[in-house]
Structure to design on (241 residues):
């Protein structure tokens, strides 16, 4: 961990400045939260696991032509990234019904969607990160119409890349959250992380609704074996990278 005062500390990561103003250092914590931080805990070595998984996936996505803020990984739980202005939206892509989609629509968990669903949530913990319609998104100036179109396009392409990759790993990508930022040249870059914290991941060959879960739902729902699930994702990602 850097000795320099942090620029920002979130629920899962700490952001530090470096000698280069265009480069930041992200430290991945073992802290775990759920339900807008109403539930808190620790997942042993989660920071190391998530940092490595994110590294593999960001490299894969960049190889496929989508720019990210990733630079390198100087230590097991640290990542150097390009400085960006984060767009205040969580971009969620859903392939299978789970979580809030089931609660809000009545769809049965596990229902395969006819096509990927892209949703936008406002990044504001105090407001509970509410789901936004496009009109509301524009009303609060969270992004421009051009930015929204680019975010949708990038999110769907990332979904195609990750669905194919995780499929090779024997994992079903149920849904996931993305964050994006704008660099000093005005380019939109994929930022934050992609990990079992931000994805729902199910074992493709496991029908048991509890045993198949490899993501933070194990923490949310007190299912146990959280560390083992995260490690299994890392092992499978490593073996196919």
């Amino acid at each position: 961990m850097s000795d320099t005062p942090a620029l920002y500390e979130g629920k899962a990561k700490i952001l530090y400045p470096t000698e280069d103003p265009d480069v930041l250092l992200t430290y991945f914590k073992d802290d775990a939260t759920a339900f807008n931080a109403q539930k808190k805990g620790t997942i042993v070595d989660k920071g190391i696991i998530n940092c490595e998984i994110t590294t593999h996936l960001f490299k894969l996505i960049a190889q496929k032509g989508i720019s990210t803020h990733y630079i390198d990984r100087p230590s097991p739980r640290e990542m150097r990234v390009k400085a960006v202005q984060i767009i205040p939206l969580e971009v969620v892509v859903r392939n299978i019904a789970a979580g809030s989609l089931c609660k809000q629509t009545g769809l049965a968990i596990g229902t395969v969607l006819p096509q990927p669903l892209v949703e936008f949530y406002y990044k504001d913990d105090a407001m509970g990160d509410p789901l936004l319609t496009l009109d509301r998104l524009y009303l609060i100036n969270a992004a421009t119409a051009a930015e929204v179109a680019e975010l949708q396009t990038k999110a769907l392409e990332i979904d195609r890349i990750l669905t194919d990759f995780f499929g090779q790993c024997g994992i079903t990508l149920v849904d996931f959250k993305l964050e994006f930022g704008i660099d000093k040249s005005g380019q939109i870059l994929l930022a934050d992380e992609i990990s079992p914290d931000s994805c729902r991941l199910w074992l493709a060959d496991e029908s048991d609704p509890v045993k198949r879960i490899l993501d933070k739902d194990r923490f949310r729902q007190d299912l146990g074996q959280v560390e083992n699930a995260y490690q299994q994702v890392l092992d499978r990602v490593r073996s196919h990278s």
